[in-house]
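Many introductory courses stop at the sequence. We go one step further.
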Amino acid sequence: MARAGGRGATARRDLGDLLILSEVALATMLLIGAAIAARSTLRLLRMDRNLDSHNVLTAQLWMPPIGAAIAARSTLRLLRMDRNLDSHNVLTAQLWMPPSRYASGAAEQQFLDEVLVRVRSLPGAAAASVVNIPPLGILGTGVNFEIEGRPAPTPGEALGARFQIIDPDYFKTLRLPLIAGRAFEPGDADESRGVAIVSQTFAQRFFTGQDAIGQRIRPHFPQSGAYWYPLSSNRPLRIIGVARDIREDGIKDGDPPQMYLPYAQNPSRMMYLLVRTQGPPLEWAPAVRRAIQQVDRDEPLFDVKTLDEITAQSFSRQSAFGAMLSAAAGLAVLLAATGIHGLLAWSVSRRAREIGIRMAIGAARSDVARLVLRQALQPALAGVSVGIAGAVVLGAILRTLVVGADRFDAVAFAGSAVILTLVAIVATFTPLLQAVRVDPNTVLRME
């Protein structure tokens, strides 16, 4: 009977060790995954995006068709639920202008020009500009184009790039340097002399080994009247400048090609006002609102936010996923600690006689402590090893879900392993005290 009981106790200990191994392995895997997601998101939010977005106030100006206003606002809200800049001190606010007051491109341009003049005259406004879609946000629109002097692309192989409609001070406002050529000038208002500025990636991808300056491209904007497309006759555009890339899509190389078009030649129903301020941009929102209403007192300004918020919204899905993973990891760590503590406490109580006999025949309390620690740490460390192996597999999955998780994160792996090892050690504290306090005389008298 004693042997049977011994085998049963051994089987229970083996089952307990397996439980500890499994709990620690799961906790390690989830903790590493959460650390990878968190560190990747932090790298994305803190990375150098090649422009200075500090102290920039943005406000959207949109001249939609009357029937599309409600649908467009809903679409914008949906898009903002989900998408990217070092965006400290950046503000956004939207303006909606009915076509009954701005029925033509000339009327839109006049309104924008007057708004810019008034905003630039505000005390504390260092620069101001307009753009149809601000950089690093959840919105982004592309257009197909062809390069003059080259064969027209076959169906399915059309050249494409993102585009932004801007004014001459856009690069100055964002402090985005041009690496070749010049910025737009007030004289670039005649669409018959169409001009464009392209990004560094655009120049390298489509004009490899050539000078992009002076090359001519022809965009193919749909004539659909959609608010995100400019009112353009799709005439050829001569490239007059190359701008440094804005790193919009994360920490990977290979930014999307970008073209910039002057709003004077390509009026757009949707525009954002960008204002570089000399302090926290939110403090300038009331003054900007008053400046706009001096041009058109019926023009509302709403949805005021910083460009930091726009950038954060760019990663809302990734942040939510990381939070969920972190919550699961925290629960797994708690279960692992509870499991180790509970199993050790049970084991010490069951082995009190054995411990008492060991101490009675000369075993030191340090020997007992090592025995208990070994019983806990062996399956825990094995669980950490298994969890690291599982995290390697999890990392392959995270690469498809988390931007920036395409590299091996040694800090996430090592830090999580250390944390779980410390958790296992802390969980043994109370059972360890229970074991070293066993009184051999009391235990033997109970027999």
